[in-house]
Design a protein that fits this description.
The protein is α+β, with helices and mostly antiparallel strands. The chain has 55 helices and 56 strands. About 10% of the residues have low confidence.
Length: 1907
């Protein structure tokens, strides 16, 4: 405390306020600052402006808390200058001026701006905390604001040559205060982060602090997780040569940042994600590239580390860094980048990652300190200072531009505005000259200024830094503030207010464009990390729809910075500013060092002298007269006579200073100097304090007197109660004494009476005892006498009984013998009768059965005859009906025109009458009618039957009720129907839909027993509530045949067997066997019946409240086809109206005027009459032929020519071009789609119209064009793709074969309810319509369902940690929770239209229907005995229909939310399905986040359950799931349900195999790594791979392929083979071999060094087997003798020495048999003549087929008998030659034979090359047509077939690019070769994959990186 007082009371060196200097010049100002600096007095006033000199050291006690308290509520000048004085004045000025305040801190880099900002924030926080303690508020916001500084400094500050903690971004911190002075929130706005520093720094500088803090301060486990080592290893932080600085504590920075992040309420996962991103940036910096067929990543291990931290695929990241993809006429073309471009891509990725992370941190801080509308605010601007380095780049240009704007703001407030106001107010004032920088700003920002020219050149695709510099020179060379260098170089200069600065233009345009290529953006957006995705979520790709238009207006970096700077200036202009000028005393950052020249320059360009002058001469304080009088009224006194405010001001000021030196009076304001204002404020405070003291004294006296009177009244009151209490106690004591006496007297008398009564009682008891004794003695004597008499009688009775028993026993024995004999005779007779009856019954049963059989056969024959007659009759009637309909259509059109005319005439007459002066208008007429009706019914009771009352929603989108209808036609009668208007469709039903389900079913069962009857009965079943009734028909009055109470049934079983879809309903008395038409219908019935059986009352009510099902409607009408709705006057139907369409007139009648009015309002909103379009509304119009996709294509009937008009909202259909008759409209929204008119799919030329697409299924027309395959492209191992429907692109005219442009071109449009085929004869016209319609669809806003909106709300609540809000969302929205009833519509918006599936047998309808079906399956999943088919069915549907994947995820989340019993069977089944989904499909980002959130939440709610175990498994699966081509196999699903891994068998040569453990995401690369480790092949010379193999057909599996996917494909193929079917898809890919099993095969892929492999190694065995495999495939150049020798060596290796009688049963195992098939008929090499081949089956039958086709057919066939019959002689001769050679090898060991074999193979110079047989297209005809394309470790070569020497060699270093521009065509571009090499082959992907693998190996070898 003493030290603090000492500082405040210390003598001031120089002057504390330079406005008081007597000698005003720069030298005196400089000397004053120097004196104060040397005395450690670093702050100096210039009026209210503070000049702060950076001491580069810590001054003790200068910023203690006691110093803060000392400056509280003090005026500027009361205490020595301090930064706290500025903060204090700004704080209290919010109340004094009732306006926002701001503090602008300016100065060069290293002048101390950041520290000054922290001091101001710290002071304001302490003031807020003091106010919060007084008011009892929380102070957590202040803590968060202070704790944001370590985070912002760590991520936004860096060491520069001028400053150890230089802010490399600008920030404006705005603190919002309440009316009590408490900080209630704030906001941080950042400006122009220096992204370039992330990838490069100047010498002696460092990267951002956070990188060094992470490496040097993070714990070891964190660094191990991030893969970080010493900082010297990372290029992004070591290239400047400065890594550590003794003045920077990186460990402390890391600790402070962690603490601050906790205060920001960032959870551990978010912090970990942020550090992982920083680690990834460091690893990205270590990536380098080499040239090998384009730029290639040199270090895949570093790339993998970066990709793992970013949660992206390393191969995809490598492609994004080294390839550029562009969309060219609908095709994606990939182009390799060079090394320089690849490095630019790397740096661009790192910069954007860091910038996005920094902006995310700012946003999280703002969320933490966000504010509500508050009283006022104080803003602190800490922005980069003026910079002038040796090399100034684009960043310095923007920084200095910002400083120019701030200097302009300073000049405007200090000089321009102030002097202008003096002159305007008429003050006696002499203007002061000052340096105006307006012209410099005009040079930068005016039209055709520097920024304008830079932006203009940035938008030119061919614009370069050089062309930009030329434009700058040509436009501004003559400008006085522009400097053109004398020597031509790449620089230009600007004369800034702070000095001349030259800017290096290299990289200007690139940085201004801020190019972040779409490939990298796509890769980053596919990250598994939600954190990474969130950073780039709002960044759009330039290749999206309409991106070309948007790209023209894409803002540049400079334009964005200019806009944010303009926003900052607007904010500052609305505040009262305070200025802090920071001064750097020396350039070496040394304490106590003062460089006069450096300081003098800062004083000059900052206008310090002019500032001192204007502050000294000027009047900085100004107030309006009334405001001044109001403020200083306590000083005026009562003797002021004048009532005018100006006179009062003069009177008061004159009393203080009569010379008018410190004040002047303007026209409207009072102008004061600051010291006079301070004196006024001080006197005002004293006066107010005196008055307040007097007021307090009066108030205290009044309060004391009032307290005295209250005290006297209380004393009197207490005394009264005391006297009363005393008298009361005396009375009570007397009363108690009296009662005591009475009690004792009554007791005495009672005791006396008690003794008398006791004596009487004793005497009475003695008398009674004596009488009892005498009575007992008499009873004992009588009892003894009676016992003696009874004993005598018993003896007499016993003797008589014995005699009688003996007689009865004798009689019974005689009778028993007689009965037994009679019974035996009766049994014999009965058995004989039963046998006779049984024989008779059997004979009668046979007779009845034969009669029944004959009867049934006769009935069946009669039924067949009747059916045939009925069909013939119906066919005849149909033909007659068609003719009648055609006539009826023509007649109805005429009648319709006439009816329309009549109705409209009548309607016009009615309107004319209603509009006449004597009548009311229509609205009033109907309004009065309705009012009368309301009055009539006002006193009536409510009708309990609501079925007859129409109801609607608020927006007239739903209306229902009973109407009487008359639709015309043959039977033109009125019928009462229940009508529903919903979703722009009018539906009518026979009655209100009260049934849960109804429909026709076949019933077998009934009667009085459980035995079923022999005949079936078709019944109409209706389920209402819990009763299932069945009727004879579906008519209204049909008799009910029976009712089943579903609740009372014992069980409901699915008894389907074979093709019969049936279920059994078991009751107490009988069993009902019910059969549905199909499995889907049965599934619906079974599901709804089980739900009713298990539902409670509430669930039943919910099911009964479901809306009517449109499928049950007997008629529908699309409101889009309604022309008009008009009321009509009918005598019998007073409330009638008519609905008029183009084809029919519907007469309707309501029950009341209210109903009619409601229907009119609901229907007339869709009124479609004659329409007049403005020119701007019509986007396109013309004639098209329309056909509904749901009808059979019959020209002239279903196809009709209509006139179409496309607007921005719909596609309107008219009958003619005059737009008189509108036939309908197709409303367009984001879910609509339009197909592309394509050559292959939709071109119809000269074939019957019956072959068009019908019902969504394609029937291929006959085509003579063999080249109608869809175009694709492949470049450098990357497939191209064709954009989908969302981005339509017309194919190149030269990219498709020529076809005649006639016929019918069709495109299809899918809307909400219908899909239409539209035909046009012109290809160009079809494309124009398609483009136009798609653009309208794309322009519509995305449709969001309630589920999507709630998912977004959950995301926001979870990000902000609002758990209560999350619970509230779930509680208030049942759509997110489990429900027991069926889903009516999908949870997510799904595209409209019929599903075009490649497998037509699956019967898909629409996505909406399929989504609802899946949900219904989920509800009954617990009833399934085997869930496997259901799970596979759901997964297969999601695989076929990609949009359903997110929908099924949402359905599963819904059904597993808020389940009462987490471990019930249904919930566990849904979790099992969710696990399978998580292992198979990756949902979209928003749904992925939602699923993860749901899983984590359920685990938290039920941690120790089976459900939690499945949830944990699903969460882990989501982290590793990869894209799949096939749904999981049955074995995989079993493993998933068991939450375990599955086993896979991998085969290798020689019949060996091994089993490995894999999961659903295990890749082939991981399996290879496991096998290599297990076989000790780590040090092998060649590279292995997995293959999918069937017989001799094999295909290498990509390392990224999922092994479980391959196994699932094998299961699918095996199932097809078991059914006898062959899948053409795989046969076309060369992946089928009849009769051979599918296997995973492990073998060599890249042959890198075949000579160094040791013979006794495992690798040598692989090499030998694969060399032999190439031989027998005919892919090794050798003569016949050599092949014979090799075959003999193989036989010796396999079987040893030849034994007499040995034979080669299968020649294909040792010899290339294909070589014999193409061998010419001439003398062979063995010395004997070949026999002429016989005309076999193939050669005879297929004689007309070419040799190549015949060869392909022979190769694909595996029938050995056919093969031997064709080439028997050649095969026999070859076998004989091999055996002869085999005999000569006797005694050769297997090892020796193997070595000889391999020695011969290695003798070929190009051994290890993979040979592909291709057809060459060379314009120079340098090569034969059929050749071998050889691919090996160093080059690609071209060989003649069977020629060991190549025709040409092409090293990889010379290959510029390679790939497949179209299917089955491979191109290689070689440096120095004029023409490209083009080959036809079906193995394009195999060649490209192998070439890229070899190139990657070259890259690894060059950089000495192990594989």
């Amino acid at each position: 405390m003493a030290e603090t007082v000492k500082i405040l009371q210390a003598p001031q060196a120089g002057l504390s306020d330079m406005a008081k200097l007597q000698d005003l010049n720069v030298e005196s100002i400089l000397e004053n600052i120097r004196q104060r600096f040397e005395a450690d007095q670093i702050y100096t006033y210039i009026g209210s402006i503070l000049a702060a000199v950076n001491p580069y050291k810590t001054i003790p006690n200068l910023y203690d808390f006691e110093v803060m308290e000392a400056y509280d509520k003090r005026h500027i000048g009361d205490l020595p200058p301090h930064i706290y004085a500025i903060a204090n004045d700004a704080y209290y000025s919010m109340w004094k001026q009732t306006a926002n305040q701001c503090v602008l801190i300016s100065g060069e880099s290293g002048a101390g701006k950041t520290e000054s900002t922290k001091f101001i924030l710290n002071y304001l926080s302490k003031m807020s905390q003091a106010s919060a303690v007084e008011t009892g508020n929380d102070v957590s916001v202040e803590k968060c604001i202070l704790q944001s500084s370590p985070i912002l400094e760590a991520f936004g500050n860096a060491k520069t040559v001028y400053n150890n903690n230089s802010s490399r971004f600008g920030k404006f911190i705005q603190l919002a205060f309440s009316s009590r002075g408490v900080i209630e929130g704030g906001k941080v706005q950042d400006y122009l982060l220096e992204k370039n520093r992330v990838v490069g720094q100047n010498p002696g500088e460092r990267n951002y602090h956070i990188f060094y803090a992470l490496i040097l301060g993070a714990p070891d486990e964190m660094k191990q997780k991030l893969g970080l080592g010493a900082p010297e290893k990372y290029k992004y932080i070591n290239q400047s040569g400065c890594i550590k600085d003794p003045n920077i504590n990186d460990q402390q920075i890391y600790s402070d940042v962690n603490e601050a992040l906790k205060d920001m309420k960032l959870n551990d996962e978010q912090v970990s994600d942020m550090f992982e991103l920083l680690g990834a940036i460091l690893h990205i910096g270590n990536l380098d590239f080499i040239t090998a067929g384009g730029a290639q990543v040199s270090s895949m291990s570093v790339l993998k580390q970066a990709a793992d931290l970013l949660s992206v695929d390393e191969y995809q990241l490598a492609n994004a860094l080294t390839e550029k993809t562009r969309l060219l006429r609908g095709e994606l073309i990939s182009t390799p980048l060079d090394e320089h471009q690849a490095r630019d891509s790397r740096d661009s990725l790192a910069m954007n990652l860091y910038a996005r992370c920094f902006h995310w941190i700012i946003s999280r801080i703002n969320v933490r300190i966000r504010t509500k509308p508050t009283f006022h605010s104080v803003g602190v601007l800490d922005i980069f200072g003026f910079e002038n380095f040796e090399v100034n780049r684009f960043e310095q240009f923007n920084i200095n531009f910002a400083n120019e704007k701030l200097q302009e703001y300073f000049n405007k407030h200090i000089f321009s505005l102030e002097q202008h106001e003096y002159n305007a107010e008429g003050l006696d004032w002499v203007d002061i000259d000052w340096q105006d920088n307006g012209e410099c700003l005009d040079l930068i920002v005016r039209k055709l200024g520097l920024l304008s020219l830079i932006d203009e050149e940035s938008r030119f695709p061919k614009g370069t830094d050089g062309t930009m510099l030329d434009k700058l020179h040509s436009n501004h060379a003559k400008n006085g503030f522009y400097i053109k260098p004398r020597v031509n170089n790449s620089k230009f200069g600007i004369k800034h207010y702070a000095g001349d600065v030259f800017y290096e233009t290299t990289g200007f345009l690139e940085k201004n464009r801020d190019t972040f290529r779409d490939e990298m953006l796509t890769t980053i957006k596919e990250s598994r990390s939600d954190f990474i995705y969130d950073l780039f979520e709002d960044m759009q790709e330039s290749s999206q729809p309409n991106a070309a238009k948007k790209n023209r207006k894409k803002p540049t970096v400079s334009s964005q910075f200019q806009e944010s700077l303009h926003s900052l200036m607007s904010t500052l202009s609305a505040c009262n500013p305070y200025f802090v000028r920071c001064i750097k005393p020396n350039s070496t950052k040394a304490p106590n060092a003062f460089e006069k020249t450096l300081t003098l320059n800062q004083l000059r360009y900052s206008g310090m002298l002019e500032t001192v002058k204007i502050r000294r001469a000027g009047f900085p304080v100004r107030r309006l007269f009334d405001d001044f009088v109001r403020r200083y009224r306590p000083l005026l006194g009562k003797d002021t006579q004048s009532s005018h405010s100006q006179h009062k001001c003069i009177s008061l000021l004159s009393s203080y200073e009569s010379t008018n030196q410190k004040w002047q009076i303007g026209r409207t304001k009072v102008f004061l100097k600051e010291d006079l204002e301070i004196k006024l404020e001080r006197d005002r405070a004293e006066r107010v304090e005196t008055l307040v003291t007097k007021a307090k004294a009066c108030f205290k006296g009044y309060r004391a007197r009032k307290a005295y009177k209250a005290t006297v009244a209380k004393i009197v009151f207490v005394q009264k109660y005391c006297r009363m209490y005393r008298q009361r106690r005396r009375f009570l004591n007397l009363k108690d004494a009296t009662i005591t006496l009475q009690r004792y007297e009554r007791g005495r008398k009672a005791r006396q009476l008690f003794h008398v009564m006791m004596e009487e009682r004793r005497m009475e008891e003695e008398r009674k005892r004596e009488e009892q004794r005498r009575r007992a003695e008499e009873e004992q004597r009588e009892l003894e006498r009676l016992k003696a008499e009874a004993k005598l009688r018993e003896l007499e009775e016993l003797q008589a009984k014995l005699e009688e028993d003996a007689r009865i026993k004798a009689e019974e024995e005689a009778a028993k013998k007689k009965r037994e004999e009679e019974e035996r005779q009766r049994v014999l007779e009965k058995a004989k009768a039963i046998e006779a009856a049984k024989r008779l019954e059997e004979e009668q049963a046979k007779i009845r059965a034969e009669e029944e059989r004959l009867k049934l056969e006769n009935e069946l024959r009669i039924r067949r005859e009747e059916e045939a007659l009925r069909l013939e009759k119906e066919e005849a009637e149909r033909l007659v009906e068609e003719k009648r309909l055609e006539e009826e259509v023509r007649r109805r059109e005429e009648e319709l025109a006439y009816a329309m005319q009549q109705v409209m005439t009548h309607f016009d007459d009615s309107i004319a009458q209603l509009n006449s002066p004597s009548d009311l208008n229509l609205d009033k007429y109907y309004g009065d009618m309705f009012e009368e009706a309301d009055q009539d019914s006002e006193y009536q009771d409510d009708d309990p039957d609501e079925d007859s009352v129409s109801r609607k929603s608020d927006d007239l989108q739903y209306w229902e009720g009973y109407l009487n209808m008359k639709c015309g036609g043959m039977v033109n009668t009125w019928k009462k129907r229940y009508c529903v208007l919903r979703d722009e469709t009018l539906m009518w039903f026979r009655a209100k839909q009260e049934a849960l389900k109804s429909g026709w079913l076949m019933k077998k069962g009934g009667g009085t027993s459980t035995l079923s009857r022999r005949n079936w009965r078709k019944r109409f079943f209706v389920l209402k509530g819990i009763e299932l009734a069945y009727y004879e028909s579906d008519s209204d009055g049909a008799p009910c045949k029976g009712i089943i109470n579903i609740k009372q049934t014992k069980d409901i079983l699915d008894s389907s067997f074979g093709r019969e879809s049936s279920l059994d309903i078991i009751t107490d008395k009988r069993t009902y066997h019910i059969v549905a038409d199909n499995a889907d219908d049965l599934s619906e019935w079974f599901s709804i019946l089980m739900r009713v059986k298990n539902a409670n009352e509430y669930e039943l009510k919910q099911m009964q409240d479901e809306d009517a099902n449109p499928k049950n409607a007997i008629g529908t009408l699309d409101v889009a086809v309604i022309d008009s709705v008009v009321p009509v006057h009918l005598q019998t139907k007073p409330n009638a109206f008519a609905i008029i369409t183009a084809e029919r007139v519907f007469n309707m009648s309501a029950d009341s005027p209210e109903d009619m009015n409601g229907w009119l309002k609901a229907l007339t909103q869709y009124h479609k009459g004659q329409r007049t379009y403005s020119k701007e509304e019509i986007l396109m119009s013309g004639w098209l032929t329309k056909e509904n996709t749901g009808t059979i294509s019959r020209p002239g009937i279903t196809r009709k020519k209509r006139y179409f008009i496309l607007t921005s909202h719909s596609l309107d259909i008219y009958k003619s071009v005059d737009l008189q008759h509108k036939l309908g409209a197709i409303a367009l929204n984001r879910l609509c789609s339009v197909t592309v008119p394509d050559d292959k799919m939709f071109k119809e030329i000269d074939y019957p119209p019956e072959l068009v697409i019908m019902n969504g299924n394609r029937r291929s027309p006959p085509s003579g064009n063999p080249e109608t395959n869809r175009r694709s492209s492949f470049s450098f191992g990357r497939k191209s793709s064709i954009s989908g429907l969302a981005t339509l692109s017309r194919p190149r005219s030269n990219s498709r074969p020529y076809v005649r442009d006639y016929g019918t071109w069709k495109f299809t449009i899918h809307s909400r309810r219908y899909s239409y085929n539209l035909f046009t004869p012109s290809n160009d016209e079809a494309w124009k319509w398609t483009y136009a319609i798609q653009e309208v669809i794309d322009s519509k806003p995305p449709i969001e369902t309630p589920s999507q909106i709630l998912i977004k709300e959950l995301r926001e609540a979870s990000l902000n940690g609002y758990n209560d809000e999350i619970d509230k969302i779930y509680k208030l929205n049942p759509i997110l929770r489990n429900v027991p009833y069926m889903l009516k519509s999908p949870l997510l918006p799904l595209p409209y239209g019929q599903i075009m599936s490649s497998n037509l047998d699956k019967g898909y309808t629409t996505l909406q229907d399929e989504a609802v079906k899946i949900f219904n399956v989920l509800q009954g999943s617990e009833q399934l005995p085997d869930p496997m088919p259901v799970i596979q069915g759901i997964l297969q549907t999601c695989q076929d229909l990609k949009p359903l994947q997110d929908e099924v995820y949402c359905q599963l989340v819904k059904q597993t939310t808020w389940v009462k019993d987490a471990d019930n069977l249904n919930n566990l089944r849904n979790w099992q399905i969710l696990c399978c989904m998580c292992c198979t499909f990756i949902p979209s980002r928003s749904i992925l986040r939602y699923v993860r959130f749901h899983i984590k939440r359920q685990v938290e709610l039920s941690p120790k359950t089976q459900m939690a175990a499945y949830a944990g498994y699903a969460l882990e699966a989501l982290k590793r799931t990869r894209t799949r081509e096939f749904v999981p196999s049955r074995d995989e699903i079993i493993a998933i349900l068991g939450r375990r891994d599955m086993n896979a068998t991998v085969f290798c040569h020689g019949g060996g195999s091994c089993q490995i453990s894999i999961n659903s995401s295990t890749t082939a690369g991981q399996v290879i790594h496991t096998l290599v480790k297990g076989m000790n092949l780590d040090s092998c010379y060649n590279r292995f791979s997995l293959y999918e193999k069937s017989g001799l057909v094999e295909k290498a599996i990509d390392d990224r392929s999922v092994v479980a996917d391959i196994l699932a494909k094998f299961e699918s193929l095996n199932a097809q083979n078991d059914d006898g079917n062959k899948d053409s898809r795989f046969r076309a890919r060369g992946l089928s071999d009849r009769g051979k099993p599918w296997q995973l095969f492990f073998k060599l892929f890249c042959f890198l060094d075949t000579q160094s492999v040791k013979p006794d190694s495992i690798e040598y065995s692989f090499l030998f087997e694969q060399a032999h495999e190439e031989v027998i495939r005919g892919k090794f150049p050798a003569t016949d003798e050599q092949l014979i020798h090799l075959s003999a060596l193989r036989m010796q290796f396999d079987k040893g020495d030849y034994v007499h009688g040995d034979w080669i049963n299968d020649l294909t195992e040792v010899y290339p048999v294909d070589r014999l098939k193409v061998k010419p008929k001439e003398d062979n090499d063995f010395g004997f003549q070949q026999r002429d081949r016989k005309d076999t089956f193939i050669s005879g039958t297929l004689r007309g087929i070419g040799e190549k086709t015949l060869k392909r057919l022979q190769k694909s066939a595996s029938d050995d008998n056919i093969l031997e019959s064709v080439y028997r002689d050649d095969v026999s001769a070859t076998i004989t030659a091999i055996i002869d050679k085999w005999r000569t090898l006797k005694g050769t060991s297997a090892e020796r034979a193997q070595n000889i074999y391999m020695s011969f193979m290695r003798s070929w110079k190009y051994f290890g090359s993979r040979l592909f047989e291709v057809e060459c297209h060379d314009g120079r005809q340098a090569y034969p047509k059929s050749i071998w394309l050889s691919v090996n470790k160093s080059m690609v070569a071209v060989h003649k077939i069977n020629d060991p020497n190549p025709l040409d060699e092409f090293p990889y270093e010379k290959i510029l690019s390679f790939g497949a521009p179209i299917p089955n065509e491979y191109k290689i571009i070689v440096e120095g070769r004029r023409s490209e090499l083009t080959f036809d082959t079906t193995e394009v992907f195999e060649i490209a994959k192998l070439m890229k693998a070899y190139i990657n190996e070259i890259v690894k070898k060059r950089n000495m990186i192990p594989a």
